[in-house]
Design goal:
By secondary structure, the chain is mostly beta strands. It is about 10% helix and about 35% strand. It is built from two helices and five strands. The chain has helices at about 50-55, 75-80; strands spanning about 15-20, 40-50, 65-75, 85-90, 95.
Length: about 100
């Protein structure tokens, strides 16, 4: 299993249902506004990568976290659509459902 935030085991696995944290930080974030607070399913895990929020804020070294591909139903995001939307999200952006 890939390592998660802070070098420990990844917090989530493929197939897990997660919710994207709903906050609106006063700094850079890679969380698209349209998925904040939404529930989705992890469909793929990447390795751990530096958190872009930390890099943009000049935090050195930046935190390194697992990146997940989270799939959302379009109808849940926009009220219509039969397709899905996949978004790459770092571990700290997510919480269990």
């Amino acid at each position: 299993m890939p390592e998660g935030a802070f070098g420990g085991p990844a917090a989530f696995a493929v197939g897990d249902r997660v919710r994207v944290r709903a906050g609106d930080p006063d700094h850079h974030t890679r969380v698209p506004r349209y998925v904040r607070g939404q529930e989705g399913e992890i469909v793929l895990m990447y390795d751990a990568w530096p958190l872009p929020d930390d890099r943009a804020r000049g935090i050195d070294p930046p935190r390194v976290e697992t990146v997940y591909v989270v799939r959302f139903a379009a109808r849940d995001l926009w009220g219509t659509g039969r397709h899905t939307v996949a978004v790459d999200l770092w571990e700290s952006y997510l919480e269990p459902c």
